[in-house]
Design brief:
The complex is a heterodimer of chains A (611) and B (490). By secondary structure, chain A is an alpha+beta fold. Chain A has 21 helices and 20 strands. The mean pLDDT of chain B is 87. Classes of the chains: A alpha+beta (611), B mainly alpha (490).
């Protein structure tokens, strides 16, 4: 057979086959073994991590009244591929939009340059947060609107319009939030102010992930790995505020038309019972589509309604500062309670210097000095302290000693309340005056003894001073959250902080403050009532404009339940607004209600404005 | 009767069970791949007839029955009927063009009851039998032009009919018969010329837009002209055994081009392709003179080759710039040569196929665990791109395994073909070998991004009854022939 001469060609053909298979195996090795890139790409193709958002914790007041909760919000979604025979007019009417808006939105959705995640197979957001009323109508007609769906989400809702500053609000994360914390992704929500911010991690819980398989058309085809890689969301925890919402409501009503703040604290625990900052805004403004606009409007208001004066505002404390001075002088032995008297003839006079005062008997000792709020007494006290060279080597040393007392009483530094944005106020020290005044002595800084000059406090610090006096010498860091579901508040919010003054000197101060209420010439006479013993101290803080009206007090004298600070900007004498507002707050909290007379007084105060 | 019985008993003994074993392994391996490719998350029953895996299972069972039946049909039956079968097949292919409904642009599927059959898949065995029978005639020589063109005509006619059905891919398979003819004595220069044409087209098209640093010369043009010159000189050396002339050609032809290149690069830049073109023309004229002297037809054929390969760059350029090819074919070639990187559209299939295979890693994602294929990222995943599923779910181990099993099969079939007692059997055997090889080469090459996307199935793996039956028939006719190798007479 002739073909035998070509027999060797079988090896050529076998060789070709071998070469092809070898080349293909090498190619396979390059694709499959050289890198993991293709594995990543395949995963990105097929795996869709669906985020499951946990429900955010609710917020309650100290009596268990619900303040903030979640309510479903409805977004209208569309799958463009499934749309057919849409009665556009009826559709637009149901959603209260114009056909033009409809066209524009559809054009936006299908334009990949504006909506990069567009797929005609998956749900696209057509209209966010329609009202519940619209939703009900829409749901009934939905079978006629093929391709349209409703997505339910949780949105924050408020029961009361009050305590906006304390509660804060929830809004979409900013670029900064995303940059600072990997947890947040664009479109997520985050607490922006108040406890929503400071307890964000407690309230929000932990997102879950559902690992899904997505086909080439963007349609979900099931769970990846039978759901073994899914992570269940951890729901947010509820929190209970120390705020009494009734008290808060009264406070906000009393502060209507005024700028300023009320802070009330339960002395034994440091729990903040109410925290009013006026002007304020309604929590209802922080809900729904209008939130952004409302915030812009509030930020443009020159009275700064979004500024939480109670913890961020710093003011001269005026005469409410005097108890701290009395305690310092007594503890340092500059004065003794019954034997040391200083003269006051319409004020403190020394060479060319004069600090004015009002009419009261002179000379007088510490208790009546507190009761009558004598400027002269405290100026002399500071003068003798700073010039006592047997105790202090220099004025600077005396100043440093004085500053240490103030700091121990919670002034000059942040108290550490569990709210964002607390200010530290200002307690000057020796270095400060060395730098700013160069040569100075007790007389140059004499006004700090009566809460003027460089000294500033936040209303919270003033209230905390009230609580410290009520406790006879210690305070517990004021805090706004009383309890966390299945957890506890931070230990730092439970520890007592003792001041440098002894309890027995506090007892003297308490008597003085009680005298201010009971004595006919006392500044707080208006706070006298038949039910419980009130101790108080007024302040009339000078500033460039009209004086600020200030009050600090607590009640009852023994086993105090509430300490309160009231600050009304440009409100005049402490007795004008401070005392009545403070006593109404105490009455409401201690008695649980206002007497008829008090109700009338409350209505009258609520109706008065301060410009 | 007695003769027949002993015959069948002997058949059982002398059957090549190794090949049958490979066949069964590949058949079920293929079925698992189809399961992976068509798996539906909502219909997990792989045997459901809603799914192609269920249907393919039936096709596999019927193929096994078919295989058994074919083993009972004697070799001489084919010998007697092969001409008739061939003519019938050609007629069916012809009729199909007119009666088949349009399926995605192709007119090759005939619906019969619930199934659709593709005659082109069944025609291969008939053509192989016919080619073998013709070659088996005494005195047929592939060196004579009249025999050669008749043999070629036997497989070119059905090929053209299938092209007319718009199934270019299936038609191209018939080119595999050239490899069969090579085994039977056809000059290797045909394969060499074909190979060089492919190289020229690849180089020419790939570098058709690239110029040298000085901007005067198109890189593709220069390379194609050089390859043409060198391959022409190679043919003169190999087939005319004329070393003096080869030396002359190399010295003057190649030497001139080297000088022109150096001059263009270091002295004055100019388009030295003009010099190359002149050299190639000079060589053609020189070979023409040789033909005039020697009257050897070899020179004539070499001249034809030289003219064609010199002109191929310009022809390709013309075809591509004037869009003479169907759009999708041109795009497929551009994608393959890396000239079109639009992964969203033109390059999508091949790119997703690469991702599917690449993501399999060493041992793969596991049975039914592939995501690229199941979630429809890879198109045609059950049919032409079935190898993606193998790559993704069985990894390097599985896909290299499939290649090696096919290599064993081809190697085994070469051995069987070589032991045939007659030309007919051998030619038929090699037809089987070459058809399998061609399918393997083109199908897996396309999935791996090494050959253009040509829609032909991977034997035993791609979903589809027609191709499975077609390959079964092709193989088992041969196995029966082989089993009869020790019997005398036909």
């Amino acid at each position: 057979m002739r073909a035998y001469e070509f027999e060797r060609r079988q090896y050529v053909i076998a060789g070709i086959a071998l070469a092809i298979v070898l080349i293909y195996i090498i190619r396979l090795a390059f694709l499959q073994l050289a890198s993991n890139d293709y594995e990543e790409i395949a995963k990105n193709n097929a795996i869709y991590n669906k985020i499951i958002f946990p429900s955010r914790g609710s917020i309650y007041d100290r009596n268990g009244k619900l303040l903030v909760y979640n309510e479903p919000a409805y977004d209208v979604m569309v799958i463009t591929r499934e749309m057919s025979d849409l009665d556009t007019l009826d559709f637009c009417k149901t959603l209260h939009i114009t056909p033009k808006e409809f066209e524009e939105r559809m054009a936006w959705i299908t334009d990949r340059s504006k909506n990069p995640g567009y797929s005609s197979y998956s749900q696209q957001l057509f209209r966010p947060q329609i009202s519940s009323a619209d939703f009900l109508v829409f749901q009934e007609k939905m079978f006629r609107f093929k391709g349209f769906y409703v997505r339910e989400r949780n949105a924050r809702q408020y029961k009361y319009p009050y305590a906006a500053h304390v509660l804060g609000y929830v809004a979409e994360v900013s670029g900064n939030d995303i940059a600072n914390n990997d947890y947040y992704k664009p479109g997520d929500y985050i607490g922006k102010q108040g406890v929503e911010r400071s307890y964000e991690e407690v309230l929000r819980g932990q997102k879950g992930i559902e690992v899904l398989l997505r086909d080439a058309r963007g349609k979900i085809q099931g769970k990846f790995n039978e759901g073994k890689d899914d992570q269940k969301p951890i729901p947010g925890k509820d929190i209970m505020l120390s705020i009494d919402i009734e008290l808060q409501a009264l406070g906000e009503k009393l502060m209507q038309g005024k700028r300023g703040s009320i802070v009330a604290i339960e002395p034994s625990t440091g729990e903040v019972l109410c925290m009013v900052s006026s002007p304020t805004y309604s929590t209802f403004d922080m809900v729904g589509k209008q939130r952004g606009e409302n915030i812009m409007r509030l930020l443009q208001n020159t009275n700064h309604p979004m500024f939480n004066r109670a913890i961020s505002g710093t003011y001269p404390p005026g005469s409410t500062f005097k108890p701290s001075q009395a305690l310092t002088f007594m503890q340092e032995g500059i004065i003794t309670s019954d034997y040391t008297s200083y003269p006051c003839t319409q004020g403190f006079r020394f060479r060319n210097m004069k600090v004015g005062c009002h009419s009261h008997p002179s000379p007088l000792s510490v208790k009546p000095a507190l009761s009558t709020s004598c400027n002269g007494f405290f100026c002399w006290g500071l003068y003798y302290m700073f010039n006592n060279r047997t105790k202090y080597a220099s004025t600077q040393e005396a100043m440093t000693r004085w500053k240490d007392y103030m700091v121990s009483m919670g002034f000059g530094y942040r108290l550490g309340i569990d709210l964002p944005g607390e200010s530290r106020g200002m307690i000057p020290n020796a270095d400060y005056y060395d730098k700013h005044l160069k040569r100075w002595n007790a007389l140059s800084v004499i006004s700090i003894s009566i809460g003027q000059g460089e000294v500033t406090l936040t209303p919270l610090q003033i209230a905390n001073q009230g609580a410290t006096i009520a406790n006879r010498g210690y305070y517990i860091t004021p805090h706004i959250v009383k309890g966390i579901q299945g957890g506890a508040i931070a230990d730092s919010l439970k520890r007592p902080h003792y001041t440098m003054a002894n309890a027995r000197y506090y007892e003297e101060v308490v008597s003085g403050m009680r005298g201010a209420v009971t004595s006919s010439i006392g500044t707080c006479h208006g706070a006298q009532n038949p039910w419980y013993e009130v101790c108080g101290k007024t302040g009339t803080a000078q500033n460039r404009g009209h004086d600020h009206s200030v009050f600090m007090g607590f009640a009852p004298r023994n086993n105090p339940q509430i300490a309160v600070a009231v600050y009304v900007e440009n409100g005049g004498f402490g007795a004008t607004f401070g005392v009545p507002i403070g006593s109404l707050i105490m009455e409401q909290y201690i008695r649980g209600e206002l007497s008829p007379g008090s109700l009338a007084k409350a209505a009258s105060i609520a109706s008065r404005s301060v410009n | 009767m007695l003769y027949k019985e002993s015959n069948n008993k002997g058949i059982f003994k002398s059957l090549d069970w190794f090949t049958i074993g490979l066949y069964v392994v590949l058949l079920f391996w293929g079925w698992f791949s189809v399961c992976g490719a068509c798996y539906d998350y909502n219909k997990p029953d792989l045997f459901s007839f809603d799914l192609n895996s269920g249907k393919q299972f039936i096709w596999i069972l019927t193929s096994l029955l078919l295989a058994g039946a074919l083993l009972l049909i004697e070799k001489r039956f084919y010998y007697k009927t092969s001409t008739f079968v061939y003519i019938m097949m050609v007629l069916i292919l012809l009729i199909t063009i007119f009666i088949a409904p349009d399926t995605k642009g192709s007119r090759s599927w005939i619906p019969i009851g619930p199934v659709k059959l593709q005659p082109a898949e069944f025609a291969k065995f008939a053509v192989a039998l016919a080619v073998g029978k013709y070659m088996d005639r005494y005195g047929v020589s592939l060196y004579t032009f009249k025999d050669f063109y008749k043999v070629v005509l036997i497989f070119i006619v059905p090929m053209l009919l299938i092209i007319a059905q718009k199934e270019t891919g299936t038609a191209l398979v018939y080119l595999a018969f050239f490899l069969v003819l090579y085994r039977e004595g056809m000059t290797g220069s045909v394969l060499f010329a074909g190979f060089m044409f492919v190289v020229d087209v690849v180089v020419g098209v790939k570098f058709s837009d690239e110029t040298t640093a000085n901007g005067h010369v198109i890189v593709g043009e220069a390379w194609v002209l050089l390859l043409s010159l060198l391959s022409t000189i190679f043919l003169v050396w190999r087939y005319c055994k004329d070393n003096i002339r080869v030396k002359n050609l190399l010295l003057y032809g190649f030497g001139t081009i080297v000088l022109a290149y150096l001059f263009s690069t270091f002295v004055i830049p100019f388009n030295f392709c003009i010099i190359q073109l002149l050299v190639n023309l000079g060589v053609i004229i020189y070979l023409g003179i040789q033909y005039a002297y020697t009257k050897s037809y070899k020179y004539l054929l070499i001249i034809l080759f030289a003219i064609a390969s010199t002109g191929i760059f310009y022809a390709c350029n013309y075809v591509f710039t004037h869009n003479l090819l169907p759009k999708h074919q041109q795009t497929r070639i551009e994608v393959l040569l890396g000239k079109n990187n639009d992964l969203q559209n033109a390059g999508y299939n091949v790119n997703q196929a690469k991702i599917a295979i690449g993501s399999g890693g060493f041992i793969g994602k596991g049975f039914l665990k592939g995501t690229q294929t199941k979630l429809k990222y890879v198109p045609e995943q059950e049919t032409d791109f079935i190898f993606c599923t193998v790559g993704e779910e069985e990894g390097f181990v599985g896909s290299a395994g499939v290649l090696l099993f096919f290599l064993f099969l081809i190697w085994r079939l070469i051995i069987l073909a070589e032991r045939q007692p007659d030309t007919w059997g051998r030619v038929y055997g090699y037809s089987v070998v070459c058809i399998f090889l061609f399918h393997l080469f083109v199908n897996i090459g396309m999935v791996l991004g090494l050959t253009p996307v040509i829609g032909i199935p991977l034997p035993f793996f791609s979903y589809g009854g027609s191709s499975l039956w077609g390959f079964t028939i092709l193989l088992f006719i041969f196995l029966r022939m082989d089993a009869e190798r020790n019997f005398k007479s036909k």
